[in-house]
Task: structure prediction
Amino acid sequence: MNRTLAKYAIDPAHTSVEFIVRHMMIAKVRGAFAKVTGGFAVPEGGVIPEDIEAKIEVDSIDTREAQRDEHLRSGDFLDAATYPSIVFKSGKIEGSGERFEVHGEMSMHGVTRPVVLEAEFEGRGNDPWGNSRIGFSARTAISRKDFGLTWNQALEAGGVLVSDDVRIELNVEGIAQK
Result:
């Protein structure tokens, strides 16, 4: 049986890639990456994507604090000069209806590791210019250390400056390719 797949390109203007990490064990800091590209396919009439690929430009990191952003781009953290992008490629996708899990591999800082995204179909429709659009949200958590991001500072009162756990939240809108 041949399935018809609609191919979508990620719309960077309507897509967000955000992360949350604890600072000094007392507060959560939120940041985002402004530049993301990629695409995916969706079976005709379906709501679960497949063949997902996304590329995030590390230089586009924004935590609303220029000095912190420069530190995050440096060799202490993401080392944007050596590793300019974070890449995700899907593998197995499980679920039915509007909730599903995307098993894939994320490559960051020269390390590729498996990750699982808890995802949800958000909707579809046509924009005023006749383009077909579809949206998804997803979330996961990773360990910075699993990707070789080990820089930290011990705090005098105990604990560390930056937590190892990083939560990632995605909101993705795709535009059908003609």
About this structure: The chain has a mean pLDDT of 88. The radius of gyration is 18 Å. The helical segments are 66-73. The first helix runs from residue 66 to 73.
